[in-house]
Amino acid sequence: MLTLGIETSCDETALALVKDGKLLHSVMATQIDIHALFGGVVPELASREHYRLIGRLYDELLQQAGITAGDIDVVAVSRGPGLLGSLLVGLGFAKGLVAAGRARLVGVNHLHAHLLAPGLEEELEFPAAGLLVSGGHTHVYRICGPDDFTLLGRTLDDAAGEAFDKVAKMLNMPYPGGRFIDQLGRMAEPDSKLFTRPYIDNDNLDFSFSGLKTAVSLYIQKNPQLVLASQDMAPRLFDGSMDVSGLAHLCASFNHTVAETLRIKVERGIDQMQGRGESVRSLIVAGGVAANSRVREAMKAVAQRFGIRLSLPSLFLCTDNGAMVAYAGELLAQKGLSHGLDLDAIPRGQKIPDDYLRMDLNR
Ligand code: KG4
Ligand code: ZN
Q1: pLDDT per residue over 60-102, tens digit each?
Q2: CA angle 270, 272, 277 (to 5 degrees)
Q3: 82 CA: nearest ligand 1 atom
Q4: Distance between CA atoms of residues 309 and 282, nearest Å
Q5: Contacts with 137 (C-beta within 8 Å, 6 or more apart), sequence order
Q6: How many CA atoms lie within 13 A of 71 on its CB side?
Q7: Mutation pick for ligand 1 pocket among 137, 299, 319, 320 (CB with most ligand atoms within 8 Å)
Q8: Distance between CA atoms of 185 and 252, rounded to whole angstroms?
Q9: Which of 51, 159, 204, 290 gets the highest tally of CB atoms within 10 A of its CB?
Q10: Which residues contact 246 (CB under 8 A, 6 or more apart)?
Q11: Centroid of ligand 2 to alpha carbon of 241 (angstroms)
């Protein structure tokens, strides 16, 4: 089964071809430079860029793979959550391909695609506990299969990635700044007392990062020398030409506090599942913040504590990409699930309906 995946939910236009669980080819254009000028994603610009680029990326992908449109069996597309205008570009393109050819259409939940992504590199073991940590979401799930996700906890305010990006913004680092905080944090030992782990004194699996963000903001107000004089200085942070020890100390401590908070809630989630008699065979961690070195270490510790497998995608599969969409689409299509041309895009904040067309695979 040859599946084309289309991802346009935010600021990455990404397409990929997956065949029988293996990534064949992928193409991607990132809009980071455009949005960095504004310090965050500008939805109108994002959809225009997707529209400008999607056709040429598609041609490039087919050329790389040496195939024609008629070879594609499934067109999988991110249907949400995301920016509505951006999603519509991907959906429109996918529907055009499906209407003109023989391929089946599968609308993919972008968040589920993130969590299924490690399946491109290793076999996933279900039932699994899932942690999705991205720029827009911090979700804890119980996952029993590609179409069987139960949401157990979520952020009440900022997502983990949003907290990273806002702290980076306070320090005058370019958007999205999570990777700078990570890289700087690796250059110092964390002070575990500097920031309180937010919203852990309860028994739920929800998160709240806004208090931590305020604590960092107060710390920066007291230490204004930490703020970069100009965003152009960001590349110099790592070439040895600046004293970054104060920044590294702050970033290491912030990274540590976020990672520890995630660890506590994920451990609690697994404890609660096991307490209900539900088996948990693995922990899957995905989304842009899963690229963070301290988060990766913390999740290794969780898996070790419970003696379960940790599925953590390679860095290129953590952030938005077309491969994860193609792979999730392939898994759903293999289960006989698809969508008609009336497939809707679902913006952030709205529930994604279970509206698959179901093919009877036993007939
Ligand atoms: O999953 P993703 O690519 O896009 C969304 O669907 O949101 O995640 C992007 C987020 C951004 O907030 C970015 O700063 C963060 O992931 N991020 C990181 C790292 N790499 C990306 N945060 C912390 N450490 C990193 N190494
Ligand atoms: Zn994403």
Answers
A1: 999 999 999 999 999 999 999 999 999 999 999 999 999 999 9
A2: 95
A3: 6
A4: 5
A5: 81, 111, 154, 155, 159, 287
A6: 12
A7: 319
A8: 4
A9: 290
A10: 223, 225, 226
A11: 34
Distance between CA 290 and CA 304 in Å, rounded?
17
| 306 touches ligand 1 (CB under 6 Å) | no
Long-range contact pairs involving 237-245 (C-beta distance under 8 Å, separation at least 24): 237/180, 237/183, 237/184, 238/183, 244/184, 244/187, 245/187, 245/188
- Å from CA of 300 to ligand 1 middle: 19
User: Which amino acid type is present at position 93?
Assistant: F
Among the bound ligands, the one closest to the CA of 259: 1
First-to-last alpha carbon distance for the chain, in angstroms, is 19
Report pLDDT digits (tens) over 286-317. Answer: 999 999 999 999 999 999 999 999 999 999 99
Instruction: State the pTM of this model.
Output: 0.94
Residue 132 contacts residue 286 (beta carbons within 8 Å): yes
